[in-house]
Amino acid sequence: MASMGLKERFWNQLNGKEVDMTPAGSTTTYGVVALMDQCGYARPLADTDPIAMTELSYAAHQYAGFEWVKAMGWDIVGLSEAMGCELGTPLKDIQYSIKGHPYKDGIEHIDFPTDFLERGRFPMFREHFRLLKEKVGDALIIFGETEGPFTCAANLVGTEQFMKWIYKKPDMVNDVLEVTREAALAAVNFAFDNGADYYVFAEPTAGPALIRPKFFEKLAQPAIKYVVERAKGPVVLHICANSDSVIDMMCDTGVAGISIEEKADMKAAVEIAHKKGVKVFGNVATATTLFSGTPAEVYKEAIQALENGTDFLCPGCGIAPPSPLENLLQIKKARDDYFK
After folding, report:
1. What is the separation, in whole angstroms, between the first and last Cα of the chain?
2. 238: which strand partners?
3. What is the rounded distance in angstroms from the CA atom of residue 180 to the CA atom of residue 220?
4. 68 three-state secondary structure
């Protein structure tokens, strides 16, 4: 088969058409210090400045060989920030995190703000999308990402309190989700309107590490499905840790793809997902192998993911900032060698 353009290969794979090889890149955050050093644009500037954010976004393609690029920054707090959460201070090697919960004392006044897309970093993201689109033209796929509606809801009231509500006050959980699903929908369609090709919702709080699968089905799944059904383009759902017990439910949200970590069983996930017409992204270990393993270990794990049938060879989660560039380069190298 003749070699394909990067964009065509990605689209063909996502849409179940023929490809010459598995696309290799990242569908999670990659605010990596080595990439900042290569391109000359570092956080925290790259968290808030559209030029710096764009250059760091492109650096993964330029220096790490990733075959598509990420818009909207290096954290997953975009919705929560615009909904009023207080954020911690980012550093070069530390991403934005949630420091304060605006509805921890009660949700009587919770509401979806009509000016949502003028809040937080959305006005900056608009300019960043324009610059990134200008930079990559028609050569590369661009994706946007934020936390999903469930994780955003937990951020608004505080995760610990939210977890208690799941057992004791599920109605209150649903009240918050009614608001955060509107925020998620506004964000996803904002991204598509500004040039994103697909969108990722990261739902760390909805994973089996934190809630039982039955609560995922009852509470998280309907909120995610609501957004996916109304999104103007394809959505990928990322869930951290061992997601084996919810793979089928993740697929049933209507997403085009799911993104899984190394703790999940890639072979089994592919089998379940493909029956439902869903693609799988993953699953080179980020917390261990990419971060502190040798290049040979990354290479071996990447080959293993390919052998297990991944549709998109990617890190299993957001890449840790201190991860060495040499390790990132093994993802594409393993893929190239595998298809030689």
Report:
1. 12
2. 202, 259
3. 11
4. strand
Domain 6-338 has CATH 3.30.300.20: no
Comparing CA positions, the residue from 252, 255, 251, 250 lying closest to residue 231 is 255
User: What is the DSSP secondary structure assignment for residue 211, as one 8-state letter?
Assistant: S
pLDDT per position as a tens digit, 89-146: 999 999 999 999 999 999 999 999 999 999 999 999 999 999 999 999 999 999 999 9
| Residue 186: CA count within 13 A, CB half-sphere | 20
The DSSP result for 133-171, as a single string, is: HHHHTTTSEEEEEEE-HHHHHHHHH-HHHHHHHHHH-HH
Which residue type, as a one-letter code, is found at position 210?
Answer: L
- Strands 141-147, 68-70: pairing is parallel
**pTM flag (> 0.90):** yes
Q: Which two tokens stand for residue 85?
A: 């959460």
Distance from C-alpha of 91 to C-alpha of 74, rounded to nearest angstrom: 11
- Spatial distance between the Cα atoms of 234 and 216, rounded to a whole number of angstroms: 21
- β 257-259/98-100 pair status: unpaired
What DSSP element (H or E) covers 166?
helix 159-168
Rounded to the nearest 10°, the torsion over CA 32, 93, 85, 73 is -20
pLDDT of residue 2 exceeding 90, the answer is: no
| Cβ-Cβ contacts under 8 Å for 128 (sequence gap 6 or more) | 50, 53, 54, 57, 71, 72
If we measure between CA atoms, which residue out of 304, 335, 294 comes closest to residue 13?
335
Q: Tokens for 71?
A: 């818009």
3-state secondary structure of 161: helix
Q: Is the dihedral of CA 116, 120, 121, 123 positive or negative?
A: positive
Give me the pLDDT at residue 62, please.
Answer: 98
Answer whether 195's CB lies under 8 Å from 132's CB.
yes
Per-residue buried b or exposed e for 83-106, using 16+ beta carbons within 10 Å of the residue's own CB = bbbebeebeeeebbebeebbbeee
318-328: per-residue pLDDT in tens? 999 999 999 99
Burial of 60 (0-12, 13-18, 19+ CB in 10 A): buried
Please choose, from the candidates 42, 44, 95, 29, the residue with its C-alpha nearest in 3D space to the C-alpha of residue 328: 29
